[in-house]
Structure formats: C-alpha cells, structure tokens
Amino acid sequence: MNILITRPLIDTEDLMGKLFSLGHKIIHVPTLKISTIKSVTVDFKKYDAIILTSANALRNLKVTNNDKNKLFFCVGSITEKIARKLGYINTISAGGNVYALKNLIMNSNRISKNSKIAYLCGDNLTFELDSELNKEGMNIEKIINYTSDKITDINDENKKIIASHPPDIIFVYSTRSAESFIEIIKNYSLYPLMTGSRVMCISNKVLQVFKEANWKKLETFEPGEELIKLEK
C-alpha cells in the first residue's frame, strides 16, 4: 500500500522503517514544525512527578535541579523509551492512551492528591489532561515548553510521488496537523488524488476536522496501533 505519514521524521522514523520492511511505499509529508520555548526551564525540585503526553516535551526540556529518579508518567512506550535514554529510570507508561494515562495517575499509589505534578506539553492540545486531573482534586501545573507551527507547503518531489502513487492510507496525529494537511491539499489541488484514501485519525477531535472539511473515509486509531490497522 501507499502510506502517507504526517508526523515529523524524528517521531515516525521507526514506524516508517517497519512499514517499508513490510513492502509498503512511504510518503512523508510533515505538517508541523516543533520549536523549543527557550525561556522555559523546569525546576524538578518543585515537583513530585512529571507527566508527559509527547516525546517532544522531553526533547525540548531544559531543567534545573535534575533528578534521574524523578517519577515520570508517560503516555506511551516511545515517550518512555526516550526518557530512559535520557537516564530517567523511574518511568511508567500508559500504553499510548491519554485516557488510560489519566486513570493511571489518579490510581497511582506513588503519589497523593497533595503531590505537586508538572505536566510538560506543547501549545496545542487535543485533550486538556491538566484540567481533567485538577477537577479530580489533584495539583497539576501545566508547563508549555515547545510550540508546533503549521507547515502548509510541499516540495516538488512529494507532489510527484503523490501524483504517481496516491495514498491508500493517511496517518494524522493532532488537530493542528489535520488543519495543516488540509491546507496543503487545498493549496496544491491534491484532493482529487485522495478521494479513495482512508484517513486514520488519532482521536475523534482530529476526525472531526476532516469531517468538517467533507472528507469521507475516516477512522480513528490508538497510538502504536498503526500496524494493527493496516492488517485489518
């Protein structure tokens, strides 16, 4: 199959390698540019635990009073793997689901409702985890340490690839990425090449962006389920 991936290369290199080894043709069209907010530094001494729903929060982390034993709640295995590579040994993964992450934090015996927890994230979220946990009486401080800016152009090589190999499957990982991708398609009049494409959305919010733009073949998937979806 022809599979179009919209994530930045650093976040999807492993997946692309697996798909390529299975004989699929990969079209990489990044839709977001990730940038560090240089003025943000996190003092680990102030917090009992750290929440991460994106590996980008780790890649763009600047910290004082670093503590490799600090408790990390990670949304999925990729984020946890990066945390481990950076030397953090006290990590817990929720298996790639933000709702499971919420339940994991609420039911953890490693913290209490009096614990002060930092939620490191980007400027654009599909799920306000900090608000949900604060409603439950927890003490969560959201710290935005990176931004995601839309990419709304596409290079000539990718235009040629799409024209000759229209994607069967398109994976999209955030609402902002969905908005950016739709802009690219409009700017370059590529929609007629994608009327048969199945758009795989990481959440119902992402799916809704495509639905409002009148895309037809829409499905949701959980992080890490890309290969399972292809098998189906």
Question: Describe it for me?
Answer:
This protein has 232 residues and is an alpha/beta fold. The chain folds into two domains: 2-31 and 151-231, 3-Layer(aba) Sandwich (Rossmann fold); 36-146, 3-Layer(aba) Sandwich (Rossmann fold), CATH 3.40.50. Helices cover 34% and strands 25% of the residues. The strands form three sheets. The chain has a six-stranded mixed sheet, with helices on both faces. The longest helix has 13 residues, at 9-21. The chain is elongated, with a radius of gyration of 19 Å. 34% of the residues are buried.
- Class from helix and strand fractions: alpha/beta
Low-confidence stretches: none
- State the end-to-end distance: 13 Å
Largest sheet: 6 strands, mixed
CATH topology of the largest domain: Rossmann fold
> What is the strand tally?
13
Report strand %.
25-35%
Radius of gyration, whole Å: 19 Å
Helix content: 25-40%
- How confident overall, as mean pLDDT? 93
CATH class of the largest domain: Alpha Beta
Give the spatial strand order of the biggest sheet.
3-10-9-5-7-8
- Principal-axis shape equals elongated
Series of secondary-structure elements, N-terminal to C-terminal: EHEEEEHEEHEHEHEHEHEHEH
Q: Any guess at the CATH architecture of the largest domain?
A: 3-Layer(aba) Sandwich
**Discrete helix count:** 9
Q: How many domain modules?
A: 2
Task: Please describe the structure with a list of short key phrases separated by commas or semicolons.
single chain, 232 residues, alpha/beta, Rossmann fold, 2 domains, six-stranded mixed β-sheet, 9 helices, 25% strand, elongated
